Backbone:
């Protein structure tokens, strides 16, 4: 994946952009990138740090800059419920399953077509 157009910090191997932390080397195609929403996921960060070939000092600097740039904000609904005393701990967000398209072994020209009628 190409670097996001908003670049806030660039190191030797990592960059902090509007999409989060991205590897400067574009041959990796975004495999090691970390989105803004997952910057505070310590398991993901630790797994990226232990990958072979990762410059740990540059990664730590990028992580520090990214966490300062994008602070962790609680969900506003959960914050309101916690203020009312309804919820004591933040609830985990539900995982949405990925969309799966199944057309294995078929040619596209033989699949049924659909159109939006007006």
Residues:
């Amino acid at each position: 994946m190409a670097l996001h157009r908003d670049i806030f910090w660039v190191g030797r191997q990592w960059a902090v952009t509007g999409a989060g932390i991205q590897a400067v080397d574009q041959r990796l195609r975004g495999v090691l990138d970390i989105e803004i929403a997952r910057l505070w996921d310590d398991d993901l960060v630790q797994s990226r740090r232990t990958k072979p070939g990762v410059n740990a000092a540059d990664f730590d600097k990028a992580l520090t800059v990214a966490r300062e740039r994008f602070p962790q904000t609680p969900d506003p609904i959960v914050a309101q419920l916690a203020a009312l005393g309804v919820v004591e701990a933040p609830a985990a967000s539900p995982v949405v399953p990925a969309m799966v398209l199944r057309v294995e072994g078929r040619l596209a020209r033989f699949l049924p077509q659909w159109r939006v009628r007006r």
In short: The CA atoms of residues 78 and 91 lie 8 Å apart. The beta strands are 7-10, 14-17, 20-23, 34-35.
